[in-house]
Design brief:
The complex is a heterodimer of chains A (about 300) and B (about 400). Helix content of chain A is about 30%, strand content about 25%. Chain A has helices at about 10-15, 60-80, 95-105, 125-140, 160-165, 190-195, 230-240, 285-300, and strands at about 20, 25-30, 35, 45, 50, 60, 85-90, 110-115, 145-150, 170-180, 185, 195-200, 205-210, 215-220, 245, 265-270, 280. In chain B, strand 16 (about 280-285), helix 7 (about 295-305) and strand 17 form a beta-alpha-beta unit.
Chain lengths: ~300, ~400
């Protein structure tokens, strides 16, 4: 925290003739994506207290699709300034997840990597972040990692910060927008230092933060709606191969993968019991309203 | 960590395990069940099997955990270095666990300050609330609430003091700090717990809503330490202070962060309106209001009762109200004096967010709606009709008293 604050001003962004002297590999953005059930509403059988599955298909976590859209918008913006950008999508999941990643390619991603192995099954967030970090290594040097703030089926919001901690990178959570900090000269070193400007709602405050690169940014669902696939994108996706890697190919330590590498375990699942202590009121809507009003009045003294 | 094992001699291929599995984690082929790669070892199938053919594989031998003891709460502070209400709520819950376990409770405060300031007055209430020791790491570097720097400081203190369990508030900052600490220490972390308890061996049982809120999952970290959990503000109640409790306040230093810091460029309050988290009276509307057109009546009702309108996730997803008004696991946890629940079915995820409400009144057309299981009073009726009549009743009462 010793470095000077980066304070982009309007003058900075208009008064310079932009020069781009980009050298080396393209700016690399990776979006972490998770396949989730299309519906998180699981109906319960009231008699047997078991879950009634609708056999619904998997979709990409909507928070992650918002992250992908931000990545694609950032790519367009940087490419407009002469910076080559590669957007990769990375997921850990069953082999069928490859179809969802191919869809991400159709919408504009350049590269797709799926980590799929029986050894990854049953991963909690710690083992998942370990595997995703291996996947990031497989994709090469990264400038930016984006992912959804959370997954709709898990609601933990832990993966982004865990991956950031594993890489010793800064992290911005729940971002609503990201853009490169305005720079007079677009070089890799200058961009890495100036980093990104992200907006977020944090502890009840709307704030804009500057974050140096490389970093992890987790994205709110409301940040952006993922674009539809383009015709060229669909053709691109048909040609492209989703790269698939197993634990051995990634050089994974099996003790850190899957069930074995997951400190947390579910010891019990239960349907919550009902107390049955609710006093049910009878009568017409008007009579009910009057009784409810009395209950509210009583609570005032309590 | 334990996987599910199937004894093929006992399995009769009835498929009950397949029926209860929410995850396609088990399949039956040729009248024999087998575990698939989707299995998350939740154990629902173990309970469902009529033949006892499924069991949990015994956990492998774990490292020596005896060096880890005592409870710890990581207390977040506001900009004036005052502990947040959720810190006290966690201290209250951890106090009970420490008492049951017969161990001490430490509270760790990492906050920004002017260099050299050693004031302690703001932390004495943490001792009154139940802390045996308050550990203060104050450094100007923590003036910006940056999860990376604070996470590393917390991880350092945990490694030195080795508490067996650590609780964090599930605030925006806590939800970044806790996973970072979990990754640094390679330990387990359970998000948004609604119940905390100890088993016979003293293992921390962390219960949270799962599967879209239809089930409660109890999670433990048997083989690693510390056992960590986050709890949302408002889930536990603030303990009564015991004036004159004995405790010690220590000042610690932490090594500087090795992660580049973020910069706050601008900051403004997110909404000018009062937060539903602080409301005394809440009218919570669910999908049962059926139409956005019912909202003005609900708003009128809330105003007459001296409160505000909040809603459930489906109402937000329908675009009828904003996310800031959503009550539940993925929204705001609320603790009003009275919560009037209109047309809310009551998925666990929603119920997890209203556990702090003192009186819950529910109106729903479905007599089997789970909301009635937590309500003290209610009616099986059309919430829109009841709301119309209630507004009429309150307006007439107001007119008479005027």
């Amino acid at each position: 925290m010793s470095c000077e604050p980066v304070r982009p001003s309007k003058e900075d962004s208009v008064s310079f003739d932009k020069q781009t002297t980009w050298e080396g590999a393209p700016f690399s953005v990776t979006v972490l994506m998770k396949a989730v059930p299309a519906s998180t509403e699981v109906a319960m059988d009231p008699v047997t207290h078991t879950i009634v599955r609708d056999g619904g298909a998997a979709v990409l976590n909507p928070y992650d699709t918002a992250a992908l859209e931000l990545a694609l918008e950032l790519k367009a913006q940087l490419e407009g300034e002469g910076v080559p950008v590669v957007v990769s999508v990375l997921s850990m999941g069953i082999s069928a997840t490859a179809d969802l990643l191919r869809d991400a390619v159709a919408r504009g991603a350049n590269r797709a990597l799926l980590l799929s192995d029986r050894a990854f099954a049953g991963s909690d967030t710690l083992a998942t972040s370990y595997a995703l970090e291996l996947g990031l290594r497989e994709l090469g040097d990264q400038d930016l990692v984006l992912c959804g703030k959370m997954a709709v089926d898990g609601d933990t919001a832990q993966i982004g910060p865990e991956v950031a901690a594993g890489r010793r990178w800064p992290c911005v959570t729940g971002a609503l927008s990201v853009e490169p900090a305005p720079l007079p000269q677009m070089t890799r070193a200058a961009l890495a230092e100036a980093g990104l400007v992200a907006s977020q709602v944090f502890e009840g405050e709307k704030r804009r933060v500057g974050v140096p690169l490389p970093c992890v940014v987790t994205v709110d669902k409301d940040a952006a709606a993922l674009r539809m696939p383009s015709v060229t994108g669909v053709l691109e996706a048909q040609k492209s191969q989703v790269e698939v890697r197993g634990a051995a190919q990634l050089g994974a330590d099996l003790a850190q993968c899957g069930l074995e590498g997951s400190p947390t375990q579910v010891v019990r699942c239960c349907v919550p019991e009902t107390s049955g202590a609710c006093r049910l009121l009878a009568g017409s809507p008007a009579q009910i309203a009057e009784q409810l009003s009395a209950i509210v009045d009583q609570s005032e003294g309590a | 960590m334990a996987a599910i094992r199937i004894d093929q001699d006992l399995c009769i291929g009835c498929g009950l395990c397949v029926r209860v599995c929410a995850n396609d984690g088990v399949k039956v082929e040729s009248r024999r069940a087998s575990i698939t790669e989707n299995c998350i070892a939740c154990g629902l199938c173990i309970d469902a099997c009529p033949k006892g053919a499924l069991s949990r594989e015994a956990s492998h031998a774990s490292a020596d955990l005896s060096a880890w003891s005592g409870m710890m709460v990581v207390a977040q502070t506001d900009k004036s270095a005052t502990p947040l209400p959720v810190a006290y709520e966690l201290v209250g819950a951890a106090r009970d666990l420490a008492h049951e376990r017969g161990c001490s409770l430490r509270v760790l405060v990492v906050s920004g300050s002017q260099p050299g300031c050693q004031c302690t007055g703001g932390y004495a209430p943490l001792i009154d609330a139940g802390a045996d020791e308050v550990l203060v790491v104050k450094d100007p570097a923590f003036a910006i609430p940056d999860g990376a720097a604070i996470g590393q400081a917390v991880a350092q203190v945990i490694e030195q003091l080795k508490p067996e369990a650590v609780l964090f508030g599930a605030t925006d900052l806590g939800r970044e700090v806790a996973p970072r600490v979990a990754r640094e220490l390679s330990c387990g972390l359970t998000a948004d717990c609604t119940q905390l308890a100890l088993d016979q061996e003293g293992l921390l049982l962390q219960t949270r809503p799962a599967f879209g809120g239809n089930l409660l999952a109890t999670i433990a970290s048997p083989a690693t330490r510390p056992q960590m959990a986050t709890v949302r503000p408002g889930v536990f109640s603030r303990p009564e202070p015991q004036k004159g409790r004995c405790g010690t306040i220590y000042h610690l230093t932490a090594a500087p962060s090795s992660v580049p810091g973020i910069q706050v460029l601008s900051e403004e309050p997110a909404s000018s309106g009062a937060s539903i988290a602080d409301a005394e009276v809440l009218v919570v509307v669910g999908r049962g209001i059926r139409d956005k057109k019912a909202l003005p009546t609900m708003e009128r009702l809330a105003a007459l009762l001296g409160g505000q309108v909040a809603c459930t996730r489906p109402v937000v997803e329908a675009g009828w109200m904003g996310h800031e008004s959503q009550v539940g696991q993925t929204g705001v946890s609320v603790a009003p004096r009275v919560l009037v629940s209109m047309g809310v079915s009551g998925a666990i995820q929603h119920l997890a967010g209203i556990s702090g409400a003192k009186t819950v009144i529910a109106v729903n057309e479905d007599p089997d709606a789970p909301i009635f299981s937590v309500a003290q009073a209610g009616a099986v009726a059309d919430c829109r009709q009841v709301a119309d009549e209630w507004v009429k009743f309150l307006e007439e009462a107001a007119a008479h008293s005027a």
